[in-house]
Amino acid sequence: MNKPFKILAIFIATIALIIGLGIAYLSFVFDPNQFKSQLIEFVKNKKHRDLSIDGNIQLNFFPKLGVSLEKIKLSEFESTAQFAALDRAQVSLALLPLLQKQIVIDKVSLHGMQLRYQRDADGKSNIDDLIKQDSATKEAEASNTSDKQMRFDIEGIDIAQSSFEIDDQKSALKGRIQNLNLNTGKIGDKNKTPVKFSAQFQFDKPKAEAKIEINTQLRFDIEQKSLDLQDLKTQIAGKLATDPFDLQIDTAALFLSAVESKSEQIKLSAKLGGAQELNAQVVLNKFLIQDKNLSIAELNLQAHSKQAGASKQLELKSNVKMALDTQIVQLPQLAIHIKLNDPKLAQAEIVLPIHGQLSANLKDKSLNSTLDAKFDETKLHTTVQVQDFSNPAISFKVDIDKLNLDRYIKNSSVPAKADNSKEEDLNLAALKSLKLDGLIRIGALQVKNLKINQVQLPLKADQGKITMNGIAAQLYQGSLAGNIGFDVDGNQFQMQQNLSNVQINPILVDFMQKDIVEGRGNLNLNIHTHGKRVSQFKDNLNGTLRTQLSDGAVKGINLAKSLRDFKAKILNKTDQQQAANKNEKTDFSALSASINFVDGIGNSDDLEMKSPFLRVGGKGQVNLRTSNLDYTARATIVNTSTGQDGTDLSQLKDLTIPVRISGPFDKLGYQLQFAQIGSEALKNAFKAKTAPVIEEKKKELKEKVNEQLKGKLKGLFGQ
């Protein structure tokens, strides 16, 4: 019995020796480098690319079949420019599993790999020829897929010190991925293996740099076509422009398959430094993809930012539904909670709860949302539609019942001093891409203490032109209508506003805290200006302002009282200067005036004011550049029998007295310029008005003297 076994053993040993000698002979005799030229020619004819192999090609036959290559380069399609390069590559296969139709790859090692990817604005890339498959290749892949007995195992993948250059004009992405490293354990069917990946990103578009590290446990099932990731931790740290950021993505388990993909929780945390600190966290609870539908039981976003002593908090919650075939995303129960804290605001803390729904069609790149909010004394309802996310066209409607902006805007009692030396040029080029078409309606609005009702603000923006045509509102027993326009090219601003039948005094008191004019009437404003800086808008202002008022008063001076007080000194010709007095006023039955502005300086020469005892005309200048007024009104006394203290001024009838109003806008002064009236005119007028009185007094005095004289003489002769 032993003899047959000995014969078998000798036979096997002999066969093994022959095979070993054959492999050894092939290793010494066969040189794979002699096929370099054929391989290079094959690539040239088949792929129209230049292949160069400057290093050695080495084959290994035992115990594993493998190949290693060095110094490989591949050109771009029909070009000599380099597309890819590789310092060293090695792949080895186990021989015995091949007999059982099993592929067991010992190790895949790639060192010093360099790739370059380019895509133009039309979507044509430099790898289109490589990924394009011919019919023979597709049939071969289909045949391999149908062979259920074929399986493979990889002892490990080792990619080290590799780089990837990208220039994608269509996605506006340009940069480089370098120091790319990938290391795995054994990759096999139903086998769990550790995976480590690291790389450095450096991009010019967008300006960013980062380092990424990924660690996870990977397991796949070929038969079920599934992939299971456990303890996934992704860390990305770097800079956006000059601001540092940190991003983490974590999940305990993520299951991916063609039938179902799910995770109990996926968490994303982000931090952004710089002038504005931002911390954000996104949590996806019960993430599920099944039957071409994606669902998230709860999407929870929390964000907190700080800047210059102010803070903002945002919390967003909603369930999420998405049909993967139509790419329609829905957030049917959207709840947003915003909290603002800013010491610069009149109300330092503002809490804004928002509820509504949102849907987006990712295929059509459109979005629709309906939102409602109630905060403080305000109720808000808005609808928003967006078309084309890459160049969005936004239409909206906003309805607000009442809004008091003064509740939130702090008014400083000390006017800010302009520092033009630190002012920067306006750069509003980004507004050229803004497309808006919407309407804002407010039932009751208070801003800068102005009370306005039934406000309608139509807003449109397209190609850098922003317009509000058809503005309408009710205010101070009258109405407002007008248009506003702004053009980004040249920063050109224009405005036409008409106030009809309004009470002017409460407007000035509420808005400017100036109690200077009473009356009811119209105000028409038509101006345009431009400037590289905001401060230049006043300097370049041109246009007109017109007003017509009736049954009112100019407050701050009582011309009748002032003229009466100075009547006794009228021959002195001394100008009388006095500050405005809010308790004094000069009544009028009608007042009209206009101002024509040229480069920030307004001239007016058509003042006309009528009162029972006065007629007032005048001319002067409004200087917006220096915030000064210099205006001379000429008051003529016409009727002294009626009106405001008229009877006391009968001696000054038909005289014209200049009244100069001048000074800074916030500190105006009034000056009655008696010295501007001729001396003889004053004397003649005074003489004409006083002569009848003097003659009457002389007659009365003569009669009294005569009576007294008769009495004295009678008494004297009677004795």
From TrEMBL:
According to the lineage, what is the superkingdom? Bacteria
Q: What's the short name of a Pfam family annotated to this entry?
A: AsmA
Keyword line: Membrane, Transmembrane, Transmembrane helix
Give the AsmA domain ranges. Answer: 1-606
Transmembrane in keyword set? yes
Membrane-spanning parts? 7-30
Please name the InterPro entries in this protein's record: AsmA (IPR007844), AsmA-related (IPR052894)
Q: Any idea what this protein is called? A: AsmA family protein
